[in-house]
Amino acid sequence: MHRLAGYIIAFSILFGSAHSPALAQDKSLTVFAAASMKNALDDIDAAYTAKTGVKIVASYAASSALAKQIEQGAPADVFVSADTDWMDYAIGKKSINAPTRVNLLGNSIVLIAPKDSKIDNVAIGPGFDLAKLAGDGKIATGDVKAVPVGKYAKAALEKLGAWQAAEPKFAMAESVRAALTLVARGEATLGIVYATDAKVEPGVRIVGTFPADSHPPIIYPVAATATAKAETADYLAFLRSSAAKTILEKYGFTFLIRPTS
Predict the structure, then answer these.
(1) pLDDT (tens digit, 9 = 90+) per residue, 74-85?
(2) What residues have CB less than 8 Å from 206, skipping those under 6 apart?
(3) Cα dihedral angle (85, 104, 150, 35), rounded to 10 degrees?
(4) How far is CA 138 from CA 152, 206, 211, 234, in A?
(5) N or C: which end of the chain has fewer CB within 10 A?
(6) What percent of the chain has pLDDT over 70?
């Protein structure tokens, strides 16, 4: 009996010691971020975890898909959108803590081709004939009805007078990274993606850059969700820091705010 009591005490000590410190150490935050953020944010998250011990679980997809998932109750602490529309949508659905929102980053959209393509540098401006340039091939971008890069692409092509002829040639992808992959594999002759995506994919090359005034400004807002853990504030502060700015600029993003530290 004494031996059994001893086992119970030993077990409870082990069980307790296994859990109390672990709870202190095993903090984690879940970040829902636009697919184009993956490489840069993975680096930022690794730096943040090294500094704080807080593990970051990141989920990457089109901003449209993420905003809908958060609306439906997905357990996220942070939302990073590739456009202001989907952040506005999430705020409208009361799934974002609106005062925490910061318009953090800028980007640009570019025309890409597979790395061994014969298509050379293209001057993109009024009268630009994208349909002719694509020939019999497909043009990949995100879904123009929902995915931010697709919305920016369509807006630019409409402004330049190139959308109507090119529209039938578009292959709409579920995210900017899916569009990037189609071009890298040679399944699409051309693609419209962010400059930051083209920079991290060796299978493509940039053949033209869309003028900044041909589409709405590309802005990435970041905010805590309505159900975010208390530790989220510190992570958001890190995203606004000089350390994060250095990483983001290395990947080609424009930092839109003055770093906080």
Answers:
(1) 999 999 999 999
(2) 110, 111, 112, 195, 198
(3) -110
(4) 18, 16, 22, 44
(5) N
(6) 90
Q: Is the pTM of this model over 0.85?
A: yes
> What number of residues does the chain have?
261
The owner of tokens 């890298």 is 184
- The 3-class SS string of the chain reads CHHHHHHHHHHHHHHHHHHHHHHHHCCEEEEEEEHHHHHHHHHHHHHHHHHHCCEEEEEEECHHHHHHHHHCCCCCCEEECCCHHHHHHHHHCCCECHHHCEEEEECCEEEEEECCCCCCCCCCCCCCCHHHHHCCCCEEEECCCCCHHHHHHHHHHHHHCCHHHHHHHEEEECCHHHHHHHHHCCCCCEEEEEHHHHHHCCCEEEEEECCHHHCCCCEEEEEEECCCCCCHHHHHHHHCCHHHHHHHHHCCCEECCCCCC
Both tokens of residue 166? 């090119």
